[in-house]
């Protein structure tokens, strides 16, 4: 099969009329994700009192959620609604890039949020001097360019392959699944090695830094007063909930795609593989909206003003 032809998403076959129910649920869920995340973005942009590093990073998470779901849901809904479940080689590479750069962005942004909380708790008197607007902007730019570079190179390495198969046992384009369809197995060694490098640099390094940061925060809190501890935990717990959920989802996806592919029932495999792209974009704005009083207050003001 020459590059430029099509892949078939095999998991959409034989869904029958139930696909319309899945389409309806998926469309409602996607609209909810867009609404909640855009609401968080608007509140933080419009309210000047929220122009603080912690809230700006929250808005970055919401922007990333809109970006990631835009690369997944429209294609998913189209495949559910129509009989043709095909995608071109080029479009498949683009979707794979969007989804996995989204996942890498999520971790780098969470890493910045952990660093921000660490500075705020360990050096409260010097916080404003350390986390300046210019420095925060620099960190955010690096947090976006860093995964784009690594994930983009992975896509370019895949684009060079000649593909002989055309059946993807996924509901979205997965770079590793595309590589496995290469005509010559000995040409995929570079892809596999580089895939390991991408996994280490975009997942394990950020997670290790985040874990180290929160351990330091816990140590500092244990040595502080009860009031200080309570305030610190109140701002850190939402981040830790988001981190735990996303980390578990990413671990399940990596384990499923690399080690357990084909060993689980299809329905369970689909649910596990979709968790990292479906749950965090919905959960993030709800967790932050419920746990931060300033965001809740300004959401109410924005809704009242719109009425």
Helix content: over 70%
Strand order of the largest sheet: 2-1-3
Q: Note the gap between the termini.
A: 56 Å
The best one-word shape is globular
| Arithmetic mean pLDDT | 85
User: Number of helix segments?
Assistant: 11
H/E topology pattern? EHHHEHHHEHHHHH
**Which residues sit in consecutive blocks of at least 5 with pLDDT less than 50?**
none
Rg is: 21 Å
Major sheet summary line:
3 strands, mixed
- Based on secondary structure, the structural category is mainly alpha
**Number of β-strand runs:** 3
Name the beta content range: under 5%
Overview of the structural elements:
This protein is an all-alpha fold and 307 residues long. It has 11 helices and 3 strands. It has helices at 18-46, 53-70, 73-81, 89-122, 127-130, 133-159, 175-179, 189-222, 226-258, 266-291, 293-306, and strands at residues 6-9, 86-88, 167-168. A 3-stranded mixed β-sheet has the order 2-1-3. Helix 1 (18-46) runs antiparallel to helix 3. The longest helix has 34 residues, at 89-122. It is globular. It starts with 5 loop residues before the first strand and ends with a helix.
